[in-house]
Input
Amino acid sequence: MTMVQALGLYNYWVVVFLMMTGFYIVIARRNLIKSILGLNIFQTSVFLLYISMGKIDGATAPIVPPDIAAAAAHHGDHHSDHHGHGEHAGHGVVDHGVDHGVDGATEIAHEAAHSATGYVAMTGIDAENIVYSNPLPSVLMLTAIVVGIATTALALALIVRVREDYGTVEEDEILQINQEEWAAGRERAAKKKKASPGVSAR
Amino acid sequence: MTAIDVAILLFLAITAVTIARIRDLWAAVMFTGIYSFLSASWMLLLDAPDVSFTEAAVGAGISTVLMLSTLALTGTTEKASGAKFRPIPFMVVVLTGCMLIYGTLDMPQIGDPSDPIHIHPSPSFVERTQGDMHGLPNVVTAVLGSYRGYDTLGETTVVFTAGIAVLLILRRGKEEDSKTGGRPGSAAASGDNA
Output
């Protein structure tokens, strides 16, 4: 394995380390709240794993520069208003055809590139050759984050409830209390059994 | 891989280990907030600003608040015996970690435009949204709200269900307390009723 290859996988290794730290907290720590913290760390490292997969070298965030977007908006819907973006008055996009499928995008980018002012002209970025990172992992992880906070909230509510009943949030103490109860319950059941034949005989 | 990347990753690792080792739960929760914030920063470097904002708001914000309010109800220190080093879980974790790292050796290089993940949905969503969404600049929003709209609806359902469940769980505790006149720390009574 060369140095370059190792650098290309470095992100994954750090993510694996973080994941395993979270995993260790979950299985080794007896405090319920601490386990939830571990679960959160694990979760966040999974987000990082997905997000680093979506990264492309030399790319930018998947947000289209306002010029190009506005040009697409003109292209798609001639009636929409664009008072906020007055600078692309001279596009002549109104005369363009009705076809705005996938091919339309390049055309739009082309138009925007030729506009005299605005983001593309100012930054000197070639509008047709902007490389965007992959938006799909971001979308999936947005969903995962929100679901994650929902489950965390639920777990914390359960912990509060456990604390109300058991008076502790330490796993081993809870197990001990459960065992004592179970033993006490069996004893009582045995006593009842012993007592009941005598009652029926009388 | 810049110096900032390396620094953030290093801080992330240190923070995670600290959370595992520290016994004071207040401090651990605060470190979790730091951890979330650091990962949000790294996500920004990885070209995912939407996820970064959400992580900063939800992970470092809401989640920390929820944790702190739970701590206020349950007590703030972990038992001393619970925080000591445990060899068997450690072995399990090291083994799993080694397996995962072995698995990453087959993974494509990070940042390579020819990775399968960047090739498969073709043409890419970036091109498609420009026509479909009439120039919505943020592609992530377009995919989240439209192409994966049902997924987002499902997510909302999950959050709604979780919210109701939290309300029910916390309210049930209060009702029982008022019915029985409250029995702090007693598990025996509820166990008997069952």
User: Anything to note?
Assistant: Residues 170-202 of chain A form one domain. Chain A touches chain B through 113 residues (CB under 8 Å). Residues 5 and 148 of chain A are 33 Å apart (CA to CA). Confidence is low (pLDDT under 50) at residues 78-102 of chain A.
